[in-house]
UniProtKB/TrEMBL annotation:
Protein name per UniProt: Cytochrome P450
Species name: Paenibacillus hunanensis
Entry coiled-coil feature ranges: 165-199
Stored PROSITE patterns: CYTOCHROME_P450 (PS00086)
InterPro entries recorded: Cyt_P450, Cyt_P450_B, Cyt_P450_CS, Cyt_P450_sf
Family: Belongs to the cytochrome P450 family.
């Protein structure tokens, strides 16, 4: 991997150099968006794009801005057309919104099982006891792996998205080794599951992927294994942060919390507004395939381009009162799930989980708040927006 890829992916922008700014990067984004809407960062060796219109342009032009920025990872996320479309159409057959909607009652059960033991205590460690485990259990069950393995999964999938502890060469190498190891373990694990399902199909995602077919084309074992790993990487921490970020905003704005508790029909649009206002993924990477001029700047072929959806989502040119959290904002064309051909495949599942968790919380408790004395710590990652822990106090009803 060359220097360019390394820095763009793992080192935060120097503008986000304090904990306060990492916990609320949006003022910094806003300044960048106004002053240097498209700029080259020498430090990270990449271009940064901040405005809504420009971010959208990058994401909707896969010919100019390729997703093949990580050649060692051959998942859907890093593919370009036409290979991307072939694979996406195949996996789509097993991952339809209708199939996802059927999971609703079960997701509610999981949410209640995780939450109920804490109700009498009036507190819960939101990240570790609810928002973290829930998506892992849901994905593990969907794929068809035993729930008993979920701690291993959580651990391995967290490793795959982890950032380096500092920006030294050693820390970077250590991280790369850990990730490679986790990837290998997961590959072995899923290969066993695929082999088992080939012997006897079951009612699960792996079995559907084995059967999926378009014009005689089927998925290879390795493609199925890689797709399963991608679901863990792409779906777990992101959904954990969606849930935590949503609860965080409700605690930061008690009037908002009261309003939504009194009008639960607002929950789906509250989830959407969370994806705009506190998006779990704030930046999306691409690499220029040819020289492109954007806002008068020439991006050269081969250079990394980081699209700041976290900034674009607050662009006043697109969203009126962009700094306000408007729970019933409509339309709300945020880019929290990306845009274009790589638009999040798991969006229906993430929305469903977000909605069900908020419904469950607001039905069972009032006055949610961050526990007194708790200090939020940002997740150390250049692309992820979330906190490591959220000790939540409440009155059970
Ligand atoms: C792609 C965000 C949950 C599976 C993406 C992309 C974003 C995103 C921004 C586009 C990346 C790019 O353009 O390079 C999120 C957020 C989530 C979430 C914020 C939670 C709130 C999930 C879940 C799953 C999932 C639950 C699956 C279980 C995927 C997959 C892709 C993807 C497979 C790749 C699609 C492609 O390359 O065609 N996600 N995601 N995501 N997401 Fe999600």
């Amino acid at each position: 991997m060359n220097q360019t890829t390394k820095y763009a992916n793992y080192i935060p922008m120097r503008e986000l150099n304090t904990v306060d700014k990492q916990l609320y990067p949006f003022d910094a984004y806003n300044e960048l968006l106004e002053q240097t809407p498209v700029r080259y960062d020498e430090n990270r060796k990449c271009w940064d794009v901040f405005r809504y219109e420009d971010v959208q342009y990058v994401l909707k032009n896969p010919k100019l801005f390729s997703s093949q920025r990580n050649r060692s990872n051959q998942s859907l996320l890093y593919m370009d057309p036409p290979k991307h479309k072939q694979l996406r159409d195949l996996v789509n057959q097993a991952f339809t919104p209708k199939k996802i909607e059927q999971l609703a009652p079960h997701i509610r059960e999981i949410a209640e099982d995780l939450l109920d033991p804490h109700l009498a205590n009036g507190r819960i460690d939101l990240v570790h006891e609810l928002a973290g485990p829930l998506p892992v259990i849901v994905i593990a069950e969907l794929i068809g792996v035993p729930t008993t393995d979920r701690h291993t999964f959580k651990h391995l999938s967290d490793l795959l998205v982890k950032g380096a502890r500092d920006d030294s060469e050693e820390a970077f190498q250590e991280l790369m080794d850990e990730k490679a190891q986790a990837h290998e373990e997961l590959e072995q694990y899923f290969t066993n599951i695929v082999n088992e399902r080939r012997q006897a199909l079951q009612d699960d995602l792996v079995s559907l992927l084995i059967e999926a077919e378009i014009e005689g084309q089927k998925l290879s074992d390795l493609e199925i294994v890689r797709f399963c790993i991608l679901l863990l990487v792409a779906g777990n921490e992101t959904t954990t942060n969606l849930i935590t970020n949503a609860v965080r905003i409700l605690c930061e704005q008690p009037e908002l919390q009261q309003r939504i508790a009194g009008q639960p029909t607002l929950i789906p649009t509250t989830v959407e507004e969370t994806l705009r206002y506190y998006p779990p993924i704030v930046a999306i990477g691409r690499v220029a395939s040819e020289d492109v001029v954007l806002q008068g700047q020439t991006i050269q072929a081969g250079q990394q381009v980081i699209s700041w959806v976290g900034a674009a989502n607050r662009d006043e040119r697109k969203f009126a009162q962009s700094e306000q959290f408007v729970p019933d904002r409509k339309p709300n064309q945020h880019m929290g799930f990306g845009f274009g051909i790589h638009f999040c495949l798991g969006a229906p599942l993430a929305r469903l989980e977000g909605r069900i968790v908020l419904e469950t919380l607001l039905a069972k408790m009032r006055n949610m708040k961050l526990e007194a004395g708790a200090e939020l710590q940002p997740i150390q990652s250049a692309f992820v927006f979330g906190v490591r822990e959220y000790p939540l106090g409440f009155d059970a009803i």
